[in-house]
Write a structure and sequence with these properties.
The chain has a single domain (2-169), classed as 2-Layer Sandwich (Yope Regulator, Chain: A), CATH 3.30.1460. The chain is elongated and about 45 Å long. Strands 1-2-3-4-6-5 form a six-stranded antiparallel beta sheet. It is 39% helix and 28% strand. Helix 1 crosses helix 4 (128-148). It is an alpha+beta fold. The chain has helices at residues 2-17, 30-33, 86-97, 128-148, 150-157, 163-169, and strands at residues 22-28, 39-47, 52-60, 68-78, 104-107, 114-123. The chain contains six helices and six strands, in the order H-E-H-E-E-E-H-E-E-H-H-H.
Length: 176
Amino acid sequence: MKDRKNELLKELEAGLKEDSGIGEISMFTAEELETPMGILRSEITGFGPGLISVLGEFFFLPIEDEDVYFFSTVITLSGTVPPEAAPDVASAVARLNYYVPVGCYALGDDDKNLIFRLTALINISDDIKKQSGEIRKAVNIALGAGEKYFGYLLMVIKNEISVDDMMKMLGGGTLP
């Protein structure tokens, strides 16, 4: 099982290297990180309203299941959430996540970074080509969904708008 997961990460790495919106890519083994799983990290360029570079991390959760792999994409959208903005950003994320159809925004463990996370279920019994396609689809969905409302959250981080203003801009709860 672990070998298949590593093979799938290598397939994703090869696919990302061909993508013009991807910068530097690094693969880290579980042993190097001293974690239960390996991680593929990638610079994603031209992201969001400011066309900035963000960090994408791709990995399989270390959950054993007979039917599925749990493949996660985590995009670090902002590494600089000021401490005074964290409560408003947490509120904005909670309200926004209610309407986001897939994945979720979150503050990191230390409340210093804003992330978008999506976990996809990959059928273990599928062949590697289908699994690889599902993984690439999950990454593309995460990038699109994470980018969609990032600009609004960035304005909350910078204290340019309030959480209520953000929700009004987004249609008062019926997001576009």
